[in-house]
TrEMBL record:
InterPro entries: TPR-like_helical_dom_sf (IPR011990), TTC23/TTC23L (IPR042621)
Protein name: Tetratricopeptide repeat protein 23-like
Source superkingdom: Eukaryota
Length: 420
């Protein structure tokens, strides 16, 4: 039975190898799409490379079909692997082919013309997003505007053929918003994001998951402009969509609750303190139930909440929250890693603010020990905490050994909880 199965597999493999290049190309394209849907990134990119090779064999080096294959490969490097340099290389190769087409390789039909316009949309969008990742807002804006114009040309053809563009108008508008944000053009960025929201609501309704990051982008802009009430309003909308789509004990709800807590905290107003604490608590509970206390996302929510509590004058509550996170963790080794350092550092800072010098010294010394093991003694993170420990070392022995620095003595350390 095993021998028969092996023979069957061998025959299938030989059939694939002996198939003509055109048939192999179709199969490679199907596999690439399937692997992309299954989030098998490397397998998808490997198949797209195979598509490029087979397209070159079938059509030659100067055919628009090769440009299409290279554009698809470039887009996959960008979206699946976040590799802007590789994406730009293949996108530029595709663009070069399209702009140097010979007379013997023009598109023969309106469908093929549509595919070329579609390929140009993919090329310019890929270049624009690669520019954005490389912090080149000017080039990003230029390429995204080109992508928008090409998409308008394609839509003007009323074309419904194969090889549709990898992006839609909304994707380009959102990308233009992020490019504007990178250029610090806040009003323009907000305008693009609001346009994307309107388009998305019209197309998919007011509970589309893609609305969440858009509402949060607008909320960030309003916060940067110190328009705190509007920032809270958009953050609330993002959280409402999240609650409508996901379970309360999910990472998605945890993320939007954390964002909303930050929006309330950013105002610095006393009347928003209760709301900020409520949403920080909701976020931490959602992450803890979905991922467990040891997960980096849960720890990050805990750190943000604890910092805010410290800044709000609730230092004892912040300290107990941080201390409790070490008691509930499942793996005892988790108090000697990167996740532990920030919590120990915050606890040390709280003790300093409370003038509990001995306890602060122990906590920050442990921080230095972990940082040295992870980064080495010369790393800036290690040096930062080491300087604080050295400063405490210069205190008189009686001050250092006491549990709490007495109020009638002149405080030699002036310290506060780190900002959010």
């Amino acid at each position: 039975m095993d021998i028969m199965d092996t023979n069957g597999e061998d025959q299938e493999m030989w059939a694939q190898l002996m198939a003509p290049p055109a048939a192999q190309l179709i199969e490679a394209q199907r596999r690439a799409e399937r692997f992309a849907e299954e989030k098998q990134v490397h397998k998808s990119c490997k198949e797209l490379m195979q598509c490029t090779v087979l397209t070159r064999i079938i059509y030659g080096n100067q055919h628009w079909r090769l440009a299409e294959a290279l554009a698809n490969l470039a887009h996959s490097y960008l979206t699946l692997q976040s590799l802007p340099c590789q994406a730009m290389h293949h996108a530029n190769s595709a663009k070069y082919i399209l702009f140097s087409l010979r007379g013997d390789t023009p598109p023969a039909s309106s469908e093929e013309k549509g595919t070329i316009w579609s390929t140009l949309v993919t090329i310019y969008y890929t270049l624009g997003m690669a520019n954005l990742m490389q912090k080149d807002a000017k080039e990003c804006y230029f390429n995204l505007q080109k992508a928008k114009k090409c998409l308008e040309e394609l839509q003007g053809l009323a074309w419904k053929g194969a090889g549709k563009p990898k992006v839609c108008t909304k994707d380009i508008i959102v990308a233009l918003g992020r490019a504007s944000l990178q250029k610090n053009e806040l009003d323009l960025a907000s305008k693009y994001f609001e346009k994307a929201v309107d388009d998305l609501v019209s197309a998919e309704g007011d509970a589309a998951p893609e609305l969440i990051p858009l509402y949060q982008e607008i909320a960030k802009i309003k916060r940067m402009k110190k328009m705190y009430e509007k920032s809270i309003s958009y953050a609330l909308q993002a959280h409402s969509v999240s609650l409508a789509l996901y379970q309360k004990s999910s990472t998605e709800v945890g993320s939007t609750a954390l964002f909303l807590g930050k929006a309330y905290a950013a105002t610095g107003e006393e009347n928003h303190t209760e709301a900020a604490e409520r949403y920080f608590t909701e976020s931490l509970a959602a992450y803890n139930e979905a991922l467990g206390m040891d997960h980096p996302q849960t720890i990050r929510a805990l750190e943000v909440f604890s910092k805010w509590l410290g800044l709000a004058g609730k230092r004892k509550q912040a300290y107990e929250l941080l201390k409790g996170s070490f008691k509930t963790q499942q793996n005892p080794c988790n108090d000697f890693n990167k996740q532990a350092v920030e919590r120990l550092y915050l606890m040390g800072c709280i003790c300093l603010a409370e003038e509990k010098i001995g306890e602060a010294y122990q906590l920050l010394s442990k921080c230095v020990q972990i940082q040295t093991a992870i980064y080495g003694s010369h790393h800036k993170k290690t040096k930062k905490i080491q300087e604080l420990v050295d400063m405490m070392n210069r205190l008189p022995t009686e001050q250092k050994s006491t549990k709490c620095l007495k109020q009638d003595k002149k405080a030699t350390l002036i310290f506060s909880i780190p900002d959010l």
